[in-house]
Fold:
Amino acid sequence: IAGITQAPTSQILAAGRRMTLRCTQDMRHNAMYWYRQDLGLGLRLIHYSNTAGTTGKGEVPDGYSVSRANTDDFPLTLASAVPSQTSVYFCASSPTSGNTDTQYFGPGTRLTVL
Amino acid sequence: KQEVTQIPAALSVPEGENLVLNCSFTDSAIYNLQWFRQDPGKGLTSLLLIQSSQREQTSGRLNASLDKSSGRSTLYIAASQPGDSATYLCAVYNSGGGADGLTFGKGTHLIIQP
Structure:
């Protein structure tokens, strides 16, 4: 069982470029999440999806978009990357919308925007 | 806006000691509180989840308590081992509306000296 996979593992990106971070889970979880982790700021929620076909904004959604076309995949897109989006990005999932369930995290994508 | 604070930010103790990590949150309207472990360069691993109606949860040498009315949680680690060295993160799932996701503290960096 793979759990949650994220790709790429790391990426260096020029400012202004478009980038999609991929997240796939094989646990058939309904809810999925994207967080970013920054030194001194901790983890912050970017976007979430309670079920396939629905998405919502988290604490820091600006500059990011998501889609949830099916249960397994939850890609995060940076339309035009800026240096402040340099961070480690974690995808997570939970069986339901999370108010009773543990969230399971992927290994993360380290993104550097120059 | 929910804020989660973890004290201390860092802790170094000799192997074998019992220790307590503290977490406080400003808004008591939560569904649950979760403790995670994060090893350097890795994703998060869930340790314990306490529902808002519960007072504590135990798993092996770990015991987490929750006092929702005072906005506090503690993670007790018994008979610490060098393998316990990691960053420990506390997170709450809010029930008061807003985004459906976890609000994290900044973590306690724990070092267990052999």
